Automatic annotation (TrEMBL):
Cytoplasm as UniProt keyword: no
A GO term, aspect molecular function: transmembrane transporter activity
PANTHER family, sorted: INTEGRAL MEMBRANE EFFLUX PROTEIN-RELATED, MAJOR FACILITATOR SUPERFAMILY ASSOCIATED DOMAIN-CONTAINING PROTEIN
Name of this chain's protein: Putative MFS family arabinose efflux permease
Cellular component GO terms held in the UniProt record: plasma membrane
Lineage: Bacteria, Bacillati, Bacillota, Bacilli, Bacillales
Chain ranges passing through the membrane: 49-72, 79-96, 170-190, 226-250, 262-281, 293-315, 321-345, 357-380, 386-408
Classification via SUPFAM superfamilies: MFS general substrate transporter
Major place of residence: membrane
Keywords recorded for this protein, A-Z: Cell membrane, Membrane, Transmembrane, Transmembrane helix, Transport
Location(s) in or outside the cell: Cell membrane
Topological type in the membrane: Multi-pass membrane protein
Every Major facilitator superfamily (MFS) profile domain range: 1-409
């Protein structure tokens, strides 16, 4: 295998950032499993309690992240990340000792808040230390970490819970954050990068400066067509995915999967995501037309989602192996959407605005993810899970087709801005 995808790891600062992300991602997914097990099995609460945990997990990204990211852009990124990790360790301790759902939700919210600050700082740091020529590989490695931990952490978490009890993953999560801090301690100072990118002048009042900088991040998204269309496409895709995500287990039951082999279906999606990330890391020609790849992946994945819905209705009858291969392909196509999006976000955003722009984009995506499950459940009650799945697949294909037509009609409007303003 060519070393293309691993090129950025030759850079010492990126090695530190990537090492920290690996253990941070591991902790995040251990956390997600442990929270659901405690609420559903340990405390015996219902679906409403699980939904409240998921909503509170996402809320800080929507209501706090975009505003707090202004301060993230002002502050030293290394210090912000280390402080956020230290606070996450404290809040994980709160989760471990939480005696009831309300206290648990408080610490879930607090931990989500520092996570919403950590990620923009990490995105900014990547943009500072990785040259433009290595951005596709760096973004792909970052996405590879997320996709790999989605597979590894639930399996590890399940084993830890079986051996040590439902709250034990929190201890491993805290240990993971400690390891992340150690990696960041080896991160060279980013002061020189931050000073060169610092365009903030002294203003008469802090309030004026804050709102000016906050609005600049939003305006940049509207003034960068490639970035704007990528965020819209990504947010819409997230909404559609989470529309049917909670219904997937019911469809799986209808197409012949039981509780014993349902995990294989989910693991296949994760394995496909990892394979897709590796493939895109080795072949980076897509970075010339990233939105074309995102749109094409949406069109193809939509057809797979429709097929699953038709299987739930009994129109398609395949053996489990065929469905598992299809799930793997669905994961691979998912990487075809997430990796190019991450590249566009990094390459089309000036270094000094990275925190604000990434937080604003994440806010829109998280909002889509929060409202979608409720809409999916409501539609499922009215139409049935299979019809929601078919509708979601058709919507995904239509979304990708529409975006491709827009790009082809206005091809001149979607040129990268890297050379014009990224380093200016």
């Amino acid at each position: 295998m060519k070393p293309g995808i691993f090129k950025p790891l030759k850079l010492k600062p990126f090695r530190s950032l990537f090492g920290a992300q690996l253990f941070s991602d591991l902790g995040n997914w251990l956390d997600f499993i442990a929270l659901q097990v405690i609420v559903a099995y340990h405390w015996g609460l219902d679906e409403t309690a699980i939904a409240s945990v998921i909503i509170v997990l996402g809320l800080p990204w929507v209501i706090i992240g975009p505003f707090a990211s202004v301060f993230v852009d002002r502050l030293p990124k290394k210090a912000v990340m280390i402080v956020c990790l230290l606070l996450r360790i404290v809040f994980v301790g709160g989760l471990f000792y939480a005696p009831n759902l309300y206290i648990l939700l408080l610490f879930v919210f607090l931990k989500g808040t520092v996570s919403a600050l950590y990620d923009p700082a990490r995105q900014s740091a990547i943009r500072m230390v990785v040259p433009d020529s290595m951005l596709p590989e760096a973004v792909t490695l970052s996405q590879l970490s997320v996709n790999t931990m989605k597979i590894a952490a639930p399996a590890l978490g399940g084993g830890i819970i079986a051996v040590l009890g439902p709250k034990s993953p929190f201890l491993f999560e805290a240990a993971g954050f400690v390891v992340s801090i150690i990696f960041l301690l080896f991160l060279p100072s980013l002061t020189s990068f931050e000073e060169s990118d610092n365009r903030m002048a002294e203003t008469s009042t802090v309030k004026t400066s804050f709102w000016k900088e906050f609005s600049e991040g939003i305006k940049h998204i509207f003034h960068a067509p490639l970035l704007r269309i990528s965020i819209i496409l990504s947010s819409a895709a997230f909404f559609i995915i989470f529309l049917y995500d909670g219904l997937f287990i019911f469809i799986a039951k209808q197409i012949g999967f039981n509780e014993g082999n349902f995990g294989l279906l989910i693991s296949a999606v994760g394995a496909g995501s990892v394979a897709g990330s590796l493939l895109l890391g080795q072949w980076t020609g897509w970075n010339r037309k990233p939105v074309h790849l995102m749109s094409s992946s949406a069109i193809l994945s939509g057809t797979f989602i429709v097929a699953v819905g038709l299987g739930g209705l009994g129109f398609l009858n395949f053996p489990p192996l065929v469905w598992i291969i299809g799930a793997c392909l669905l994961g691979l196509l998912g990487a075809g959407e997430s990796v190019p999006y991450g590249y566009v976000l990094q390459s089309e955003t000036p270094k000094q605005m990275m925190g604000r722009v990434s937080a604003a984009a994440m806010s829109l995506q998280t909002f889509s993810m929060l409202i979608a499950p409720a809409a999916g459940a409501l539609l499922a009650k009215q139409l049935g899970a299979s019809f929601v799945m078919i509708g979601a697949g058709l919507a995904t294909t239509l979304l990708g087709s529409t975006m491709l037509m827009i790009i082809w009609k206005k091809s001149g409007s979607f040129q990268p801005i890297r050379g014009k303003q990224l380093d200016g």
